[in-house]
């Protein structure tokens, strides 16, 4: 959708819109990002569109071959294995560093966010809102480890897998499963069950990955 004349899209809003398009399958792997089309859509200058594309390249969700148009990234099975192995490693480490017992106020805030996410997911809210609430839940959870650099790395690799996460991320069965797994994570934190929490944060990543593998013949 084109923005109103005189209300040019900002770089951040263009990046956010394109990333949402990738996450929810409106832009599919290998699909070309045509600069002129994006300029018209966002009422933006070419250099702003190019900066937005480069930001997506930096997040590893778009590729820009030399002398060719940018395209939404797809992955080889090996790349998927490596990305998810890295995510598992980082997320387990965050759980290992997390001080137990978890601060009561922080746990209460996380439960409130979980309830907001569950209400949005079960109530048919906008998919982008559901996605953002899900990411906020995990960001707040991992932030409890107290290592800002580790949390940034977790966020980076989570964003890098957005084209993979797009497979089934709005599926009702997956959302119901995700709500249950979030609740189990909170229970594990409350009971100080570190091993269970570490397993949960890794298992939680798998449904969309498995869907990607089944569609790509990589299972």
Automatic annotation (TrEMBL):
Mind telling me which InterPro entries this protein's record contains? GntR_C (IPR011711), TF_FadR/GntR_C (IPR008920), Tscrpt_reg_HTH_GntR (IPR000524), WH-like_DNA-bd_sf (IPR036388), WH_DNA-bd_sf (IPR036390)
Pfam families in alphabetical order: FCD (PF07729), GntR (PF00392)
Domain GntR C-terminal, which positions? 82-207
Establish whether keyword Repeat is in the entry.
no
An example Gene Ontology molecular-function term: DNA-binding transcription factor activity
UniProt keywords (A-Z) are:
DNA-binding, Transcription, Transcription regulation
Tell me where in this chain the HTH gntR-type domain is found: 14-72
Taxonomic superkingdom: Bacteria
Under which name does UniProt file this protein?
A: GntR family transcriptional regulator
């Amino acid at each position: 959708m084109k923005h109103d004349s005189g209300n040019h899209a900002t770089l951040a809003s263009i990046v956010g819109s394109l990333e949402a398009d990738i996450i929810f399958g409106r832009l599919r792997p290998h699909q070309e990002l045509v600069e002129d089309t994006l300029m018209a859509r966002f009422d933006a200058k070419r250099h702003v569109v190019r900066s937005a594309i480069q930001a997506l390249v930096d997040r590893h969700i778009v590729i820009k071959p030399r002398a060719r148009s940018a395209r939404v990234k797809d992955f080889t099975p090996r790349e998927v294995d490596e990305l998810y192995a890295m995510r598992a490693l980082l997320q387990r480490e965050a759980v290992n560093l997390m001080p137990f017992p978890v601060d009561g106020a922080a746990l209460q805030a996380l439960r409130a966010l979980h309830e907001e996410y569950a209400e949005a997911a079960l109530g048919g809210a906008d998919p982008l809102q559901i996605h953002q609430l899900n990411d906020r839940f995990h960001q707040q959870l991992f932030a409890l480890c107290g290592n800002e650099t580790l949390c940034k790395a977790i966020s980076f690799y989570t964003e890098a897998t957005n084209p993979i996460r797009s497979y089934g991320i709005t599926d009702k069965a997956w959302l119901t499963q995700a709500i249950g797994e979030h609740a189990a994570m909170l229970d594990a934190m409350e009971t100080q069950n570190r091993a269970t929490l570490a397993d949960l944060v890794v298992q939680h990543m798998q449904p969309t990955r498995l869907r990607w593998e089944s569609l790509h013949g990589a299972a």
